[in-house]
Specification:
The chain is mostly helical. Helix content is 76%, strand content 2%. It contains 15 helices and two strands.
Length: 340
């Protein structure tokens, strides 16, 4: 009995269609896009939105601090590779760790407040980290950002595993890491920890009353979100070859939040939908009109007014309507109304 209970979460993760849908997206992007950089950008921001969704969708925390962790991941990788000469795997791992530690620091203060005060506190931290990065040009490059970040071959213990000299080869690395992170987050959200986060989102007072240390759970969610977002920031720096100051400003937090809302909260695959929609739509609209942000704004207004559960909710409603239509068609014409 105990063995079956321990094995259930793993089986449950692979039974969930979310991971298979994410795999389908990873395989479809190279077939439909001509640019490996654009395809990589979709997965990089999908990672960032996964981290945001863990806070907003599963814990109910509207944080404007995601840009902090994204920027810290970019700066950490850039500094380690350009100033200290560390290798790619160790630099990426340390960027993930720094993202988690930064999120834990921000979260330790932020979770002591609720509602509007929580939002304002995360926004204040975003501004503080932005000006901190701006004021340390020797480390961050200031306005210019950290330039000339290399993208060496992926190697372990002196053995080269694969070169990353082309956009599609780098896409392969990001895709593998993305699928691993997606699978791990599915396990987290399907675990007791994930269910407790949902309980905190629905009614924190009741969750605290039955004995859960809600602050500890929210702090753990912050750290996990920061780790994933820091990883996304590290990959973004590798993709572009720079760690710009814009990565750590609050506009990046807003963009990640918008992607999360567009896709839909409380579902991991919805994060992929939101990131893909925003990145690809932005790229397409920018070819139509120089002031494409106006068109994107109108599109976001439509999403806010008519798709409260995001693209994932729209797909769910469409799937439900299609199944009902098939069931109605398959029912015998002479059958009683209750049996149709």
């Amino acid at each position: 009995m105990n063995a079956s209970r321990r094995a259930y979460p793993l089986a449950n993760v692979f039974a969930d269609p979310g991971w298979w849908l994410a795999l389908a997206v990873v395989l479809i992007l190279p077939l439909t896009l001509n640019s490996g950089t654009l395809a990589t950008e979709v997965l990089v921001y999908a990672l960032a939105v996964l981290g945001c969704n863990l806070l907003l969708g599963y814990t109910g925390l509207l944080s404007f601090g995601q840009g902090i962790f994204f920027g810290m991941g970019s700066y950490t990788l850039g500094i380690l590779m350009t100033r200290m000469g560390l290798g790619l795997p160790l630099s990426v791992l340390l960027a993930l760790v720094v993202g988690a530690l930064t999120a834990a620091l921000v979260g330790w203060f932020a979770i002591r407040q609720r509602g509007t005060y929580f939002v304002m506190l995360t926004l204040a931290f975003a501004q503080m980290f932005y000006f901190l990065a701006y004021s340390l040009p020797d480390w961050t490059g200031g306005d210019n950002g950290l330039l000339n970040i290399p993208r060496p071959p992926l190697s372990l213990f002196g053995m080269t595993l694969t070169p990353l000299d082309t956009p599609w080869r780098f896409y392969t690395l990001v895709a593998v890491c993305f699928l691993v992170v997606f699978w791990l987050l599915q396990r987290v959200t399907a675990s007791v920890f994930g269910r407790t986060l949902l309980a905190i989102r629905e009614n924190e007072t009741r969750a605290s009353a039955v004995g859960y240390d809600t602050r500890r759970f929210k702090l753990a969610a912050f750290a996990l979100s920061g780790a994933v977002t820091g990883l996304a920031g590290a990959f973004h720096a590798l993709m572009t070859g720079i760690a710009p100051l814009s990565n750590i400003e609050y506009h990046t937090s807003e963009m990640i939040l918008v992607m999360t809302v567009i896709g839909g909260t409380g579902n991991l695959f919805a994060s992929v939908l939101g990131a893909a929609f925003y990145v690809l739509m932005s790229d397409w609209l920018s070819t139509l009109w120089p002031r494409w942000l106006l068109l994107l704004g109108l599109l976001l207004i439509g999403v806010s007014l008519f798709m409260h559960k995001g693209l994932w909710g729209l797909l769910q409603r469409g799937w439900t309507a299609m199944r009902r239509g098939r069931a109605a068609t398959a029912a015998p014409e002479g059958a009683p109304e209750g049996e149709r």
